[in-house]
Write a structure and sequence with these properties.
This protein has 744 residues and is mainly alpha-helical. It contains 25 helices and 2 strands. The two termini are 106 Å apart.
Length: 744
Amino acid sequence: MASTVAATVFVESDGMTSGGSASLQFGTAEALEHVRKLTDVGTMTRLLHECIAYQRGLDLELENLLSQRPELDQQLLNLQRSADVLAILKGDSSDMLSKVASTSGLADQVSAKVRHLDLAQSRVQDTLLRIDAIVDRSNCLEGVNKSLVAEDFESAASYIQTFLEIDSKFKDSSAVDQREQLLSYKKQLEGIVRKKLLSAVDQRDHSNILRFIKLYNPLGLEDEGLQVYVGYLRKVITARSKLEFEQLVETMEQSKSNKQVDFVSCLRNLFQDTVLAIENNSEILSRLCGEEGIVYAICELQEECDSRGFNILKKFMEFRKLEKLTSDINSYKSNLLSVAVERPDLKQIELFLEETLSLTLLGENYTDYMVSKIRNLSSVDPELGPKATKAFRSGNFSKVTQEITGYYVILEGFFMVENVRMAIQIDEHVLDGLTTSMVDDVFYVLHSCFRRAVSTCNINSVIAVLSSGVSLLGGEYSEALQQKIREPNLGAKLFLGGTGVTLTGTEIATALNNIDVSSEYALKLHQSIEEQCGEAFLAPADRERIKSCLSELNETSNSFKKLLNIGMEQLAATITPRIRPVLDTVTTISYDLTEAEYADHEVNDPWVQGLLHYVETNVAWLQPLMTANNYDALVHLVVDFIVKRLEVIMMQKRFSQLGGLQLDRDTRALVSHFSSMSQRTVRDKFTRLTQMATILNLEKVSEILDFWGENSGPMTWRLTPAEVRRVLGLRVDFKPEAILALKL
């Protein structure tokens, strides 16, 4: 390896004055030749040192290689041993290779023989199957012949089905005669089955109909069987519906009372027969043509149902004379002032409304059921559902239902208006009640009419009835509510002779109670109808229309509240003049108190108890006559009047510190008493007075800063900085300069 080691050094050329250098590799002939040519001692010395360094590197490398010799010797020994093992393995491998080659050849021979045997076996099996088919064909022909003779049509059909299945698997030209003979038997059996089935249909022999309709499957006549069987179902429904319709017409001709003619039962039986025909025969229909057979049956029976239902509704409109009735209603509405026009009977109209609702609901439920039946079929085209819905909605029955719905809207609107007017006319005080009969009666009528309209599931009917009802509430009913509170000289009648008149108080309180309860009932009516509409109408557009219409009920409720506020203010205005004289006496009361005067006021109240006595006398007697909400509102209006008057009076007085304590005590007494009179808090109404008392209780002017601004804590000041300075100025012992110096 030493011969491969070379070192490169840079030497100066003799002919280069600039100290140029050239590379020199030790151990090469070129290096030796170069050294021989050297003449410069310095260069020779430098190269000598480099050569010595190069030699030392070679020595180190040689020592490193020699140190690896024991390891290399051991590895060489191991290789020699491995070579002996490899020689043995080579021999074994050669032996194994020869055996594998021999085995492979043998396997190929065996595989070829197995394939040959498998081919032979499959041909044998095919031959055996064909032989069996030949035998089975013969057996089927013999079986068909015997079954036809014995009139065992089920077995004959089974044999024919088996023969056709065999024939479809094994096409054999030698079986042409057998095939022709079998087809002859099949044609003969088809003729017999058709004849027997038609005979059973004519005789309404359901058991034989089921027997022969089942034979259409093995004979491959599924479509024909479906048509025949659905036709049979249609005839059954037609016969029953026709019979009931004839009985209905006969009853109409003989009946002297509208109640005896039951159109609802007639229509219900028609729908029920149709639904049961589908439900009870779904298995047979599916066996004939799968779920497509069920759809076909529904569509076919719907045609008959649509026609029969149309006739029933037309007869209903004719017998109930809906067209004439709506005409009479329109005439009555346009001639209200004419005595000659008689009002249609409301009880009869209500019966017609209930009957109309029942008929339309039957149609709606039947349509929903049939459409959902189609949609729930798994193997039917999903687009068939919307198509079926459109077909059901566009039929004659649906059209006449829309016509009846138009009559319904007119009847319902008239019934609602007239009953509301009647409730207003016969309005009377309810024993032990706070309102008159009008309130409960009117909202009962509206609620009943609204719910009935929603039950039709017709969005246009609902909107029409709701709009009419809301208009009625905001019009005639609202006028009736305001009639009593508009009476002139209400205050004089209420306190005739200086004392409260119970009869007049009851009338006024009841009128206000009517408005209060009506506002609450309007909100409840909105909530109830909105919930019912949410269940009946799922389309977002329909819900939005209903929501918009019902929002007018909220507006009506708010208008009632405004009327109530006006009425309560009028009532309070009749009471407060009776309290004002007592309040005016407060102007004579001094709050620049000495300790003796303060102690005397603690024992002998100067004005608070007198004021509260007057309030009790003029207000408290109305409490059992008013709703809790109205009485609270009245108390609060009276409190507002008292507080505002007291604030004005107190701002005109002079106070000592004890006077401030007296004002605080008087305010607390007022708050305590009025809190016991009302279920709603009144403390906030006395906040300004309480804060005035707090200011007037201060030891010195600067103490206000402990309660003002950032130091106010949870207190919210109702007094402005200017008012605070003014209140501080009421103290006789506070200097104006100190007050002006405050930075508020």
